[in-house]
Amino acid sequence: MAKKKSELIVLCCENSAYLAAESLTDTKIMQSVKVVMLPCSGRVEVGLILKFLENGAAGVLVLGCPLDNCKFVRGNYRAQKRVDVAMKALNDAGVNKDKVKIDFISSLDTHKFIALVKEMKSTLF
Amino acid sequence: MSAKTKFDKKKVTLQQSVLVIGGGMAGIHAAQELKGYGYETTLVERADILGGKGNYINQRADYKKILSGVTVLTRSTLTDLSGHVGNFSATITTPKGDKTVSCGAVVLASGIENKGGSVLFDNENIVPIAELKNSITELTEAETPVSVGLILDLNIEETKAGAEMVLNMAMDLQRNHNAEVYVFCREIRVASLELETLYDTARDASVNIIKYEGTITFNTTGNFITVAARDVILNDSIAVDCAKVGISPYGLNVSADSGLAEMVGVNLDALGQMQDNNVHFFPGQTNRPGIFAAGSCRGQYYAPQIITEAKSTALSVHSLLAQKSLVVELSHAVVDEEKCALCLTCIRSCPHKAMVIDQNKKVAMSIPEVCRKCGICVGECPAKAIELPAYTDDIVLGQVG
After folding, report:
1. pLDDT tier for residue A2 given thresholds of 50, 70 and 90
2. Report field, pTM of the whole predicted structure over 0.90
3. CB–CB of A52 and B380 under 8 A?
4. Based on CB atoms within 10 Å of each CB, which residue in A23, B91, B277, B308 is the most buried?
5. How far is A106 from chain B, CA to nearest CA, in Å?
6. ipTM strictly over 0.90?
7. Phi and psi for B219 in degrees, rounded to 5?
């Protein structure tokens, strides 16, 4: 099987970042970027991030709601902890830990979404 | 692309009755409003009279008239609460024995815990303002005016609630009792018409208001307590000998009734108040669906605000119960019985207390009508025993083409 072109996976909370991504009109920025919807950034697991990387993703960007503004109270704090663990695991395995990143944006922050994706792409590709 | 698939639905009937805990200003107005919406309302009060903090800021109203039609249980406490949104069962200890009340929603208006000021300062003359009322008789009997210090903003910055209470208390002491009152505050917060007027009347009643900065110290000298601080206006240090010192309850870092919060499974925030759920999505709600909070257990509010807040909380309850029944999509978290070791991680981490122990199978299980399908338990479970049917790992990984 031919290896797929590597992509940047953006794990988005459906209450904020996914809405920001939906209102994006510029399709050029979304080349080799895949948006994945999650019910809350707290759904993110270390295993899930590593699985995406194992499946050939170039990097994983987790986007949750702004801190202290999670619909489920503290889901984004939990996500941050798990991303930190994933980064440490990658670092220990000798893989560039910058392949994983977490940030917090609101549903109106489409410009931030673009900036974050651009920045992540420039470090990865 | 949507990750959602179709699920079975379940109907949960919502009982058309509400239990209100706390007969203070918030509880009374919430109960009145709920009665007006047509719900069978029960009000539980710990003390033998209604009114709560309103009693010592002289804001008593004719509660019997307001609460006509509401079952009022005084000298009673909530001792157990079981069940979930729409179908709670509460055990209330009354002087006549235990009583079980079933209700569709619970409103917590239990106010704040009264921490003893004397315990804090090891001096029986330094008390929370609520207890100052008890020593008023000795103030009245004194021949010469007795100086009383009222302290605001002791540990935390206070809001209009503290200012209102202290100014009301100061005026009462100055006018009706033989007292000379000194109010110590960092900022007096009077940003509303009623409070502005109250401040003016207090000044006219010759209440001394001292604006201080830095720390405030209390030293005992003979029968007096010397309250010393740095006065911002005089730009000098100031010391006042007071026979009694009353401290605003908010300044004592008070929290909501933590015992009650623990019993009903409601989280407290950093300030110890029951305002934990996301205010944009669930106004007036605690982290447990079907349990609401109103009044000073939820935040520092002054009287008109408390009444408005209590009514808006009642409206939140109405918008839940007026549906008569909830149609719940059965896409709640599912626990794999083989993998679950009952480590209680999910029960601790669930923000809405939707995870409970299945006593028959000895595994964790989620309650469909409570679960908000956030997937936090899925992420936390160390054994990967929990799955969210709408967002299984396969579905999440499958979103990448």
Report:
1. very low
2. no
3. no
4. B277
5. 13
6. no
7. -120, 135
